[in-house]
Amino acid sequence: MNLNQLKYFSEAVKYRSISTAARENFVTQSTFSTAITNLEDELSVKLLNRGVQGVTPTCVGEQVFYKVHDLLMLLEDIRILTSQSSKAVSLRIASLPSLIDTLLADTILYLEAKNHDLMLDIISDDSEGVQAKIQGGHSDIGVIFTDGFPIFPGLAYEPLFASRYVLFVGKHHPMYCKEELTIEEALSLKHVTYKNEYVKEYDLLTHLTRSYGKPKISLCVDNNESMHRIISRSDYVAFFPEFVTRHDAYIESGNISMLNVSNADLNLQIGVVYSKKYGSKEKISSFIEILKCVLIEEEYL
To answer: What's the total number of domains in the chain?
Structure first.
């Protein structure tokens, strides 16, 4: 038995798929699968139920998963304690790109101005992916959008502020000079989306537009800058939270216009999620208070 076998098993349970877990960990599927099979052989017990829909832990496998999770978290704590690279307190944060570019960027500047010794390790994902990272112990705290869809089991949620979705259109789009449009008009346009928006069950836009139908999705990208460039130079459009327009260079330069949606409730809430069981509660509480200070100073509220 070795740590890689235990980690691969834990990741397979988390993603409910060996192929997905292997891809997320940059390992071949055969290597991943063989490691888990060898672990089962060594323990003389079946840990995973395998099927066409993915994998689920057996009764014994579920108990082993929690033990392995505790072990991996303990090893991570040891790694942090013994790290000689920095004396600063570190916090692993997962968040959406639009929040990283705005609220978290403002938070970094705030920490520098206050000479704070908190070091942030930030990674981007969608809201479902952020929650999975917190649940799996890969991040300490997440900053996400939510409005009505469930928070993952074992996680706590604390709201920060509210916003709403607006539609971004480029200067070459026929709708550019309008101030508002209906949800039906918005959904009929050609959309560029971030990753799996409108596909995942826990995606906020999927939840918000469920009553009106999905938009015409023509292109998916994995970062905000690409979305902005595409919108500014073509007839693609996309929904964005209104708060991101505060420092948006494309909006300020006039290359992109923001349109209100007149007949749909596209409100959203921004908040933080963290594990109820793992992580430093003092460190997490301190960071939440810092976020609240930034919200006031930068006038998000």
So the answer is: 3
Note the pTM of the prediction, 2 decimals: 0.65
Residue that has been written with the tokens 């494309």 in this structure: 250
Q: List CB contacts of 52: < 8 A, sequence separation 6 or more.
A: none
**178-195 confidence digits (pLDDT tens):** 999 999 999 999 999 887
Shared-domain flag, residues 219 and 173: yes
Residues 174 and 259 in one domain: yes
Strand ranges inside the chain, DSSP E = 48-51, 54-57, 89-95, 118-124, 141-146, 155-170, 180-181, 190-194, 216-221, 237-241, 256-261, 267-275
At 112, the pLDDT band (50, 70, 90 cuts) reads confident
Is the domain of 152 the same as that of 279?
Answer: yes
pLDDT at 157: 93
167 token code pair: 């539609």
